[in-house]
């Protein structure tokens, strides 16, 4: 029997943020990028699309007209999944049939007036305006009595359910804390109560010592492939300072956040030389009026592509019925992303 090696043998890895496990089977994909790599022809988009309901000056689906904005632009979603009009109430029959009303606000953030750009193609100063708006929206929405969590996220690419290619993200602010940040909250608090420091503060220090999964680093933030990554090229951005939420960031940190957001997504685009799809979102402290010293700001990136621009990872079979599984190790993914050029492939 050979000695156990995580690069060769199947094993499980624990995610301390959620308390869940991922099965890693590296022997199934020793050389994941040596097969066929299909090229896809990307649609060339205009700077302004008269048919786009997010472009400046155009009519939206709900009948409102966009202003001729020249930077970022935010508005309440015309077909929001949550609203403040939902009456309070619920159902609880024998603990088996349960439901409760949920109030909230859904907003859309246009990152740029230009229809043809994405985050990796924008200048850092432009991306910082996105971060500025995130901060403003977190403060505004989080100050409302009925809002206890502000979820900021971006779906990029049609494969991730994005119905409009105009560069944009969303904010769903609601009265309950959603499941994923709620799971993290429990484990972050348990760790903080035991150690007196945030879980991600200690984790990041160890990752910086190891340097195995680090992708990009600047003065205030680090982008890395987490040890427990599930998606093939999953990554996280973590603040070096134990910031609880966006509202605590100063100007230098906001610029650094914008820079590393752009740097990471450039590497994603360069991987298969396409506009790389992903779902990404910020996890931060709830806005329930309580102190949350256990929280540590971070941003998750979940991209679906595996071997090329057209080979995708899906959660099926065992992953839906057992637990998530991946073939290539996080270390292999990190090495692949780390070796990519810092300059966007389109120049």
Would you mind describing this structure in some detail?
24% of the residues lie in helices and 20% in strands. It has 347 residues and is of the alpha+beta class. It has a single domain, classed as HIT family, subunit A. The strands form three sheets. Strands 3-6-8-7-12-13-11-10-9 form a nine-stranded antiparallel sheet, sandwiched between helices. A three-stranded mixed sheet has the order 1-2-14, with no helix packed on it. Strands 4-5 form a two-stranded antiparallel sheet. β1 (11-15) and β2 form a beta hairpin. α1 crosses α4. The longest helix has 22 residues, at 251-272. The protein is globular and about 65 Å long.
**Rg estimate, integer Å:** 21 Å
Helix content: 10-25%
Main sheet attributes: strand count, strand direction, barrel closure = 9 strands, antiparallel
Mean pLDDT: 93
Can you count the helices? 6
Strand order of the largest sheet: 3-6-8-7-12-13-11-10-9
Low-pLDDT sequence parts? 31-36
Q: Determine the strand fraction and express it as a percent band.
A: 15-25%
CATH H-tier superfamily: HIT-like
Number of strands: 14
The assigned CATH architecture is 2-Layer Sandwich
User: How many domains make up the coordinates?
Assistant: 1
**CATH class annotation:** Alpha Beta
Terminal CA distance reads 50 Å
Summarize the helix and strand pattern as letters. Answer: EEEEEEHEEHHEEEHEEHEH
Q: Which fold name fills CATH's third level, the topology?
A: HIT family, subunit A
Globally, the shape reads globular
